[in-house]
Amino acid sequence: MAGRKPVGALTKPLGTITRGTTGINRLRRSDRWLVHDDMVSTRLRARQDPLVVDLGYGAQPWTTLELAARLRTVNPGVRVVGLEIDPQRVVADRDGVRFARGGFELAGLCPDLVRAFNVLRQYPETAVGQAWATLRSGLSPDGLLVDGTCDELGRRCAWVLLDRSGPRSFTMAWDPFTVERPSDIAERLPKVLIHRNIAGEPIHTLLTAADRAWEHAAAVAPFGPRVRWRAATNSLRAQGFPVRNYRRRMRDCVLSVPWNSVAPNGWSPQ
Asked: Which InterPro entries does its entry note (predicted)?
């Protein structure tokens, strides 16, 4: 059965030990998105006990424990395993979450969802394609991968959602009250995009248009940044940008588009 391989079935983790910085509630914005995203929640509910891997949780396991608690609101049977390539960071199992040593090979597991935040940021851009390919090959048939980056306090973050066939979407989420303009998230773009924020690249075009739409929505600023951002996203859609329209009320400012809207020039899947 998918996801039933023993933790540590492969003894040599793939990857490099990185800084391991972490913090309580740092990944709350991506967690909220995972809980409410239709594709993610549907696939988590499809199994009685879906397996989720939090790859590279860092020096402390806070964000893994938080992920488990939040995903269990979607499916109480969710099993979560935190993997760290540094053996010194592997902690004892707690709160129904297992911890083990592992890297891009996912310790021989076959998860339904992998979250890899602030992992590839510390790798060269040229390493992203192979890392994605290795991670995707380890997913269950309907499995999903989230590769993202955020700042130290979790106020600015961005991620790519992938399945076994490749990238599906790109999303940015930020604190409405501490970020002045959408392009401020550029410093936290995933590694595959962070060096592509230059004129002529799709991600630069999107961020430039988002800033312009934000400025044009200044008339509704007195109603708060969330209202202003909703007006800005309506403007982006009117210009032809395929920005996802969220029907529910959002605590965060969120911009989500299909991957092909931001894929780097010359990019091809591996």
From this structure: SAM-dependent_MTases_sf
| Residues 6+ away with beta carbon under 8 Å from 108 | 5, 6, 7, 8, 9, 10, 102
Burial of 219 (0-12, 13-18, 19+ CB in 10 A): exposed
Other CB atoms within 10 Å distance of the CB of residue 187: 12
In a domain, 228, yes or no: no
Residue 230 falls inside a structural domain = no
Mean local confidence (pLDDT), 233-256: 95
DSSP class of residue 135 equals H
Q: How many domains does the chain have?
A: 1
In a domain, 196, yes or no: no
Q: How many CA atoms lie within 13 A of 89 on its CB side?
A: 23
The H or E element containing residue 254 is strand 253-258
Query: Which pTM does this prediction carry?
Result: 0.93
For range 31-48, the mean pLDDT: 95
* Residue from 181, 159, 186 nearest 171 by CA: 159
**What CA–CA distance (Å, rounded) separates 200 from 254?**
24
DSSP state of 258: E
Question: Percentage of residues in the chain with pLDDT exceeding 90?
Answer: 86
Domain span at residue 149 reads: 28-175+244-258
Kindly state the average pLDDT of the residues 262-266. Answer: 95
- Provide the CATH number for the domain around residue 61: 3.40.50
Residue 141 lies in a domain: yes
Give residues with Cβ within 8 angstroms of 109, minimum separation 6: 3, 5, 7, 9, 51, 53, 81, 102, 138
